[in-house]
Write a structure and sequence with these properties.
The structure is a homohexamer.
Chain A: E1 4-7, E2 10-13, E3 18-20, H1 24-28, E4 31-36, E5 38-39, E6 42-43, H2 46-59, H3 68-82, E7 92-99, E8 117-124, H4 126-129, H5 135-138, E9 140-143, H6 165-174, E10 182-187, E11 193-196, E12 200-205, E13 208-211, H7 221-233, E14 237-239, H8 244-248, E15 252-257, E16 261-268, E17 271-272, H9 280-293, H10 297-304
Parallel strand pairs in A: 9-10, 9-16, 13-14
Antiparallel strand pairs in A: 1-2, 1-8, 4-7, 5-6, 7-8, 10-11, 12-13, 12-15, 15-16, 16-17
Chain lengths: 323, 323, 323, 323, 323, 323
């Protein structure tokens, strides 16, 4: 058997999980989504993800009316179906998403699906993080591209949507930089640090953890969890506008994201941040996170290292040839 | 037989033309596309559309290497396959598009398609324009929503891409306005008139045709054709920043778009523009266009009126129910 | 007898309280003003209003030199003159204002008043709030118009001045929306929520009361009083940039304004905020306010309901006809 | 007899031409107006002024429905009434304006005027220009204040309205500069030269006359007339963004305004423009204008010099004292 | 003997301390610098200054590798060399700076210095402050010029660099204002108060000391010291966006700068702030500072008054004449 | 003998041409300058350069009063002095510049120069262009850094001044890009293409030559000369806002600068422009220029190739060591 994707109430093999070319998701990037992970196969902060999805559904006025509980149930069912196909040491990376469905104009296409699409995919987390193991040691070299983040007033990144071509363009842009471990770090149009292309950014200065105000960024659930851990540790953690100077003069920096939790950022535009290694506050946050969830996050990812994930910005090497 | 969609070199039934949920098109709105039409079943300005598509392919660095000629050939082949299923008085609305393909991360999904997707769909133009017949008489009531156009410096609308959620949001917003025939007209962040959500905008003032500078808009191929017709007629046609006052004080206004060619805009925020009817310059442009292509554009669309297309901004009335 | 307006030291009947067409107030919108109310016929926060007026006088360099005490005395005198004409259950709505006076250019007009104008009007509060009773139950549907607030750097709304045509334009704009109880809610040019056209805006999220920073808004005296009540109640109340997403995801929202004190906002662009009714924090604030001032605010306004006030944005239905 | 002001169809003495404090004009700066002048007692470009007034009436949705002809007739009637009181060598400065009228809220004030106010005042032009005679020789020293013009996207200066407090503030600001003949010249928020506080600005460079694009300015009727004269003279005259550097490096500069027609600007921030005197192109424009209208504009204004008009930005020296 | 300047490891007489015209400092304003002072001939916060210099060196990637200690040692050596030439009551004003050095292009100039320049000058503080004594009594009249501060996103003022022509332009601009004691106070492009041209700005309101957020300003070391003193005194001191209204309505205001420590700002654009004299909080801060450093700051500067320093913005009165 | 630099009327050896550390040029980047070149040892457009210098002198109010003729004479004298030291095939690269001089504060430094500095240096052009020969064949790869151009409203690049640290920062930024022949191409804050860090930019599209509007750029004298040549050739050459899309879709592109005249730009962010080689219009412009000045520009520079000039953005490899 193969892994199955939940698609509008039925299960289909992964490679058959598809969306019509007439769907609003493809026509307008009009889809909301979430991607979660498990620790020891237990989903982390699943409710928070579902609630954020439903905020997006509401604001975009997608006529989708499942409750938090119904969504949660469908996710657990999907995991249950797929779990036998996972390695013992795998974690479940779940992607769930809702599109508005086929645009009204195309409803007359014969046999076409009418109404929103609700999809749940479940695949091994190791796919996503297989190249990240070394980054716990080397750290990320955050590079500021010319591409700016689209601000919330034009298209709100706090709605986790699929109109994110500018992330792809930022990734392509920084793929032209020299050196290793380069990840894009976007400024917003005001010149403040916003976010990575899928990650939140933090600095540590004089013992305080600082992250950009929740304005022109996704308010990541890992980002929120840093606030929780900081409180647990009695460390001050605040939201504040950060500019480039603040990063250059910070003691430490790190990125957060659901799949990898937390990775050190050791350089900005190739200039060392702090000592150029994972700093003590970052280390403590990571260790506490690991302890809280009962998984040594760094060790787990390092163990998986060796898989084939390409850096996000590099176009796939396959060019299209008509047969 | 059913209409067929060209999908990476093979033909599939329309309802089966789908894209993987792991495709960059769905993940990032990372797809370029074109939509053309025929007059008397002859494609109009097809080369211009293909060239624009390839500019997008180049700038987004999608590894797709078909030539203009190869794309053209594939389109004609698709039309040929489908033409028998079209009514005698139908026109071919062709949509062709290229996505980057499955993200590298998901290449290990069993049997998943690797490399860019190249898709050509071909369906009756009447679907798109079936509700537009009355607009030739009433005109459009252009309404300025709060939503601003994303400017080219953040995500260039001149690349005809699929990260267009803000179009959908503008459409939803103006669907809350009172009255009939409301279409969104977007300002850019500088407060200049940009474009509709899929249309270009023109005013006529003292005999001169004026359209926004080609900056924060799609440089539509119908828009370019207005310049051609104006030259043919000896009417001055220029690009210039337009602000709301200019529209309120214009003599005439109209929108252009591939499916309907040209529709009068007779009101801005429910205030009459000029006399509140299609003006003489607009009329001449439309008639000349009809004459040039050998189709009475207005008459053809009016004949098709009565089909079921819903206004773009209205969410489809079907809500999702898990079975 | 009729109600009298204090005009430069004398009392004139209300309909004769007028300003010369050559006054700077009419020429430039160059006037500062305040509007207060009473509870049980006792003026509320009158000193705060007078002080704000005098800040405006100072910044605009209007050569007006009455002290706080002199202004206060004149107001009380005006109230005393008019009180016999008020119903027993009326409250005094006092408007006092200062204009620079006739522009120097027109000083040679025979018998024209020279120097600043100082005016105090006093009319029944019920005029202002007569349509608002139902809003305590239905709540306001706050609608974001395309019109943005003029930021403080161009014309400071913290100076309560009479160059407020853009308020009128926002009101006109939202009068085109479908549905009931629509009030305009302005964004500033940065895309943050600013204020209503005469009201301040608050949200409640996770028990914290949040209102926009005091930048591109009038710093309302009712707004300040919310901070006082919050402190009295031990509820956290802060200033923070608010964007649209924050409102859509808030638990509660409300507007404050001198005449009505506090009204629930139950929808943003017709999408429910929280449960779509007055929330518990809002309710407590209102009840505490009522208790503090010894007037059941909601009950009082509901009792007055039935008068003829038209929604602010609707042009008066009388068209000018030259006799 | 005294000069009379037309007020809603009747004539009242000048000092009694007043607007209620409850009028939308005073409450919101919600009034449109025009100010014209005569040459040899013949109104200049009166129709253009009336048409501009009516564009404002339309956009602001003031329910005022007089036609161009009716307005014109009322103006001529007003002039006729007042002409006997004018000196033989006087010119008629006509101000006509429309306000929305008493806000609905105040309709219950006893005997208050309901509906728009339509006012026509007619006074000697010499009042306005009595201090300007020397400026034809010295030229204006244009000074850039910190205050920026409100851009059209926030409040359109092309609608000649009464929410112009920022003009007054700019005037006050430059009244603090050292030196003579200082007039404010506003930049718009983009840093381009916009306009004076009631005047349009031009430079001459290499034989071409250049004036700011018609965006963040009033499109003055004198400004338009410069285009007419330039065409008459065969001189190139264009609209173009102007920045400070362009003014500093210009050959000549001038301001236009209805009362004075055209005055040389000989310095920017006290630095000489060109030779620091009225340049030859400016001179030719002025002379042609004089010739076209049959009045030696400069000579006429110089003859009137000596009246008491105070510089615009200086607060009147009378301070308010309660009697 | 004359005072000596440390220049790349050797001492040269003051007038011979020069930089090549081919140095990056002159070509690009590409130099970082610091200016300190002593109290009782003991350098104040020298380490903080050196650390800030090295942040600039790092961000600008100047290949300069002296340690904090080495720099400190060189400074003390320079002071030692010069101290015998100082008056007994003088203080040491030390300027130290690093330039990138001769651009590569000019390395072939015979005998030209290669590599960064490191310079330490040491001159009597009285030169800088000789005109400031009266300001402790009169206060500064802060004037907002049209020139805006360059924001950090374009050229970060937090890097204390030499591309500061806009400071000079602001100074020239305000030198045209009428009146005494005028210093420029810059707004940033958002319209917030930024800083003086070499000074930081504070207001006091309701007992709280407020200074602009550390964004578009130099984060002055005197500014930081105010936070220290405030903590010592138990006074609340915060960073917050300040707009013009906040200054006009403040109780007190002051500027800080290394040479003079703290001076009262008693007017904004010639309008009194608070009572128009040094306020009690400002007085306490100054007195505490004096006490902390063992020097009566005000008395010392007043004693030095009478030297010839010209106001910063006034061009020197000497015009160049070729011999 | 060595090359001599004209310094305030006397000649000094090149390595001794220095500016005091107390000069406004070093303190504020407060200096205007020009750099010219000869063709066959005859200065090109020298008068235009001198006039531009004097515009800067005027606007910055530097008290320098030499006439165009006097400056010209001094330049020719400097060339005459140095010419014997030039190779027969050398060209004269002349740099002349004016600083305000020692700040008033430092006038009491013993023997310090008072008044503006006027400097003329004259060195072989080959130094500047020695690495550029291959670029005529490969073309430049223009890369957009994150650093934006400072707009004219904040610090006008049209004044050729020395506060250009942001050029250096852009150069450093793009030195991190992979690949050869990378030059920075700056966007202005509006997202339009501005200029290189010392060069002007042009595209060719459909036979028209297009260069950015003369707003946020230096209006280069080579740039102006392209307009002259275009007119000579009958090719249309215009100023227009250019955005990134326009460059990607251009047929050709090139940069102009005094030392190299014109170099092809064959890629933007490593994506080929047009065919990726010098296009025919560019070729014709270059050839015409060569013909007009009687020097084969490309051949001359290629002949000089091999000298040691380092790419602009790379810090010199020498680190400072205190002796």
């Amino acid at each position: 058997m193969e892994r199955q994707v939940f698609l509008n109430g039925t299960f289909v093999p992964e490679a058959e999980a598809k969306i019509s070319i007439y769907d609003s998701a493809l026509m307008f990037g009009d889809m909301v989504f979430e991607m979660t992970r498990s620790f020891n196969k237990k989903q982390f902060k699943l409710r928070d993800h579902i609630e954020r999805l439903l905020y997006g559904v509401k604001i975009l006025q997608i006529p989708f009316d499942l409750s938090v509980e119904e969504i949660e149930e469908a996710i657990y069912e999907t995991i249950k179906v797929n779990d036998p196909l996972f390695e013992k040491d795998d974690e479940h990376r779940v992607m769930f998403e809702v599109s508005r469905g086929t645009l009204g104009l195309y409803h007359q296409v014969k046999d076409i699906h009418i109404g929103p699409n609700f999809i749940i995919a479940d695949f091994p987390l190791r796919w996503t993080v297989s190249t990240m193991g070394p980054l716990f040691d080397s750290g990320i070299n955050a590079v500021i591209p010319s591409q700016r983040a689209i601000p919330s007033t034009l298209l709100d990144p706090k709605i986790k949507n699929r109109s994110r071509l500018f992330y792809m363009m930022a990734n392509i842009e920084v793929s032209n930089y020299s050196g290793e471990n380069v990840w894009a770090l976007l400024l917003d149009p005001d010149g403040f640090v916003a976010e990575g292309t899928g990650d939140n950014f933090f600095i540590v200065k004089d013992g305080t953890i600082i992250t950009p105000e929740g304005r022109n960024i996704l308010r990541g659930i890992s980002r929120s969890y840093i606030f929780e851990i900081a409180e647990q540790l009695g460390v001050r953690c605040i939201e504040k506008n950060i500019d480039i100077y603040d990063v250059h003069t910070a003691d430490e920096a790190f990125m957060t994201g659901t799949p990898f939790c937390l990775l050190p950022v050791t350089a900005l535009n190739s200039l060392k941040i702090g000592k150029g290694t994972m700093g003590p506050v970052t280390r403590t946050l990571l260790d506490t996170w690991s302890k809280n969830v009962g998984v040594d996050i760094e060790k787990q990812i390092k163990k998986w290292t060796g898989n084939s994930k390409l850096p996000a910005g590099v176009p796939t090497p396959y060019s299209f040839k008509r047969k």
